[in-house]
Design goal:
By secondary structure, the protein is mainly alpha-helical. The protein is built from 15 helices and no strands. It comes from Fulvimarina manganoxydans. InterPro entries: TMTC_O-mannosyltransferase, TPR-like_helical_dom_sf, TPR_rpt, UCP035836.
Length: 278
């Protein structure tokens, strides 16, 4: 049985709209991008053969991301049909919140590589990020093949279905993805956020904790977990999760962002009062 503290505040599925979902998912990206390395000593980023950082964009600080955008942008301008550069540039643009530009890049790459599954998957994600969910779903499904299914495409399709309010259908696809790629943190995180949409916060927390314990889990998973814990009224724990493994300034930025997210849902003050009362 759920505790009074966890259940006294509940969001209906209607209350958590697609706009809210976009804001919740943006939280993790923003928290990651806002990481500054000023004042710290770190090894320089490795570079790929394309002259741009090889570090995944999800692990980049804001200064890393600016450098990647400049490097990938130059390479893309020189050859917009290059698949590797196009995918990397589009991913960096999405991380920077420039979704329309990312979609424009992926559209050109998809024209040059109309049957490439990696390209079609990324194109579908770019369409979803830009708000064209119907076309995104069509694109991702077209890229999938029954005889050789791709877990990334199952996960991408599930994320789109979640945004369309089809949580049950989305979870079927996440579990298919996990059958192909067990314990994949990106899929577990998507599954957790799917349960958040259905207002099943304990299940959301369980899957996000499972995700964060896997190799390869990034800051976005941690921030999603912090949000779910915060929504249950456990503020100190949420702030510890949001600030883990960060410098003091970075930790404060993430905690501030967490509070802003909860304030947008009008939950922080309500939950905080209840937490003190309990």
């Amino acid at each position: 049985m759920r505790s009074r503290k966890s259940s006294s505040f509940s969001m209906s599925k209607k209350g958590l709209t697609i706009a809210s979902l976009a804001a919740l998912l943006a939280m993790s990206a923003c928290a990651n991008v806002s990481r500054e390395t000023t004042g710290s000593i770190s090894k320089p980023s490795q570079t790929s053969t394309y002259g741009a950082p090889s570090k995944p964009v999800s692990q980049m600080s804001s200064s890393d991301l600016r450098g990647a955008l400049a490097a990938y942008g130059q390479r893309y301008e020189a050859n917009p049909k290059d698949k590797t550069v196009g995918l990397s540039y589009a991913a960096a643009l999405q991380m920077a919140g420039r979704n329309e530009q990312s979609l424009a890049v992926m559209r050109q790459v998809a024209i040059a590589h109309p049957k490439d599954r990696d390209v079609l998957s990324a194109y579908g994600k770019a369409l979803a990020a830009a708000g064209d969910l119907t076309k995104a779903l069509e694109t991702v499904r077209r890229a999938q093949t029954p005889d050789y299914p791709d877990w990334r495409l199952f996960s991408a399709e599930g994320a789109i279905l979640d945004q369309l309010g089809r949580q049950d259908d989305a979870r079927v696809l996440y579990r298919k993805a996990l059958d192909l790629q067990p314990n994949e943190p990106a899929v577990l995180s998507n599954l957790g956020m799917s349960y958040l949409l259905a207002n099943d916060l304990p299940s959301a927390e369980r899957y996000l904790k499972q995700a964060i314990g896997q190799p390869g889990a990034d800051s976005r998973v941690r921030q999603n977990l912090a949000l779910v814990v915060g929504l249950q009224g456990r503020f100190e724990e949420a702030e510890k999760i949001a600030s883990a493994e960060l410098s003091p300034s970075e930790a404060q930025a993430n905690v501030t962002f967490l509070r802003q997210m909860l304030s947008q849902q009008n939950t922080w003050s309500k939950l905080e009062k209840e937490g003190k009362a309990g």
